[in-house]
Amino acid sequence: MNTMVYLAHRFVKSLPAALLLSTSAALADDTEIFTGGSTSAASNVVFLFDTSGSMGTQEDTGPSYDISTVYDDSTYGFVADHYYLYRPGNGGSIDLATEASSILQNEVLESQINCDDALQSLASNGEYAGKMAYWAYGDGWSAPDDVTENNDSPIDTSDSSAIVECNLNPHTYNGSTYKYLSKSRWFPFTNNKKRGTSKVFKGNGGFTRIWSGNYLNYVAQYGTSGQKSRIEILREAAIDTIESLPENVNLALMRFDGSNGGYVSVAMKSGKQNKDEFIAALNAFTADGSTPITESMHEARLLLTEQHLVYGHQSVSDSRVGDIYQIPDLEACNTTTKLILFSDGEPTNDKASDSYIENLVDDTTFPAGVISLVNNCSNQSGDYGGGCAEELAYHLFHNDDVIVDTIGGFTSAGNAAAIKLEDIANAGGGTFYPASNYEDIKNALLDSAVQTLITPTSFTSPAIAVSSYNSLG
Q1: What ranges in 340-455 are assigned the alpha helix state H?
Q2: What is d(CA 46, CA 450) in angstroms, rounded to the nearest whole number?
Q3: Is the peptide bond before 170 cis (omega within 30 degrees of 0)?
Q4: How far is CA 265 from CA 293, 318, 389, in A?
Q5: How far apart are CA 136 and CA 154, in angstroms?
Q6: What is the pLDDT of residues 82-121, one digit of tens each?
Q7: Residue 254: which H helix or E strand, with range?
């Protein structure tokens, strides 16, 4: 997407809603024949990972999920080769001690899952994260709007007509291809827009997880003690996250570069096309250097707005043309852009971007009473830097339409690193996730990425690159 396209997107966003709606209505036809393409919401996500020396710290951890192992089912009785739909709260994590009975009511068979994307993730990873709905003959489509409605759908493993479908176009059913979910209670799909419905996925609508029973049995007995470095735990959680995400999450990967900003390890690509590149890049990550959070966020902004790199001289060649970042122009409606920052500590060696950020926010009027947001932010950097991270996050959200989520890895409630990361997320219109183990990190990454599908923005993002301590741990 070049600069002119970027500006055009910004212009379209500024148009009155009535004008946009009238234009759409003028172009619409009563009957639409499917011709391919997607009208689903998409999320375009940059993972920015801390690779500082502290990420080499050893942590107690349990074993990762092994698809070839059949886990003991005696705790809650999940059927290993059946599947379970759910809408988790609590940042994407679940507490089986209190939620197993609700999850058990949403049992489905593999033959009822009509979404290839979900089936592939379940087969390789035991879990799929994305918006889903349930259809049964005579009942039509249903899905929860929040966690209190998890058991409102009449889910039945014995109903051979019932299907589970993802919010991904096109829909393939009984050998035919369809564009819309149908309003009909007697047939699930249609190519006639007037007979179609998107209400089941409107706003917060949708189940957001499906697990195999075997995976849930693994979670029930998870906790065998072992030792792994923080970067190993992050690597495993990130790889499994990629395996579990739907195809309409577009991904790029960035990392810290010692004590000098950050760079792009994997360029933005559609869906799961870059899975192998992600795995190779993550496997090459080592823990060394400082924690230049602000400088790395600065480089992420340059990527997302397709500008000249500053720190990213090691950025992969397909993320740029010469020293100018380039992002593919992928079509999607309601696309949300998100930067997800994972770090295990406070900023260090992180002052080189302060002047740049002060210039960005020179004319910004920050909300009154927020002490972490000031125009002369370099005065807050102290000896180690990081004083302008919140201001940059604020600018990303309010001026670049980029949501900033943060994950505090192995931080404890109330410590300086956690407070800093939570302040960055608050300034960036995002969510702060505390995470102290593999499951916490994976759930945080999944929830952050999938939230962009649950509550997408009402405009197409200008670039391809969409708190609670008692919720995780």
Answers
A1: 354-360, 389-399, 416-427, 438-454
A2: 13
A3: yes
A4: 16, 10, 22
A5: 8
A6: 999 999 876 677 889 999 999 999 999 999 999 998 998 8
A7: strand 249-256
CB 403 within 8 A of CB 369: no
Rg (alpha carbons) of the chain, rounded to whole number: 22
352, burial (CB in 10 Å: exposed 0-12, middle 13-18, buried 19+): middle
Can you read off the two tokens belonging to residue 72?
Answer: 């003991």
Q: Which two tokens stand for residue 269?
A: 């690509």
Write out pLDDT tens, residues 349-364. 999 999 999 999 999 9
Contact (Cβ atoms closer than 8 angstroms) between residue 12 and residue 459: yes
Q: How many residues does the chain have?
A: 473
Distances (CA, A) of 134 to 79, 116, 355, 473: 20, 15, 52, 30
> CA-CA distance, 28 to 469, in Å (whole number)?
47
Domain boundaries along the sequence of the chain: 41-60+227-454, 83-217
Token pair listed for 173: 């059913």
- The pTM for the full model equals 0.72
* Distance separating alpha carbons of residues 263 and 104, to the nearest angstrom: 44
- What is the C-alpha separation between 1 and 12, in angstroms, rounded? 15
Domain 41-60+227-454 has CATH 3.40.50.410: yes
Q: Per DSSP, which regions of 145-198 are E strands?
A: 163-166, 171-173, 176-178, 180-182, 189-190, 196-197
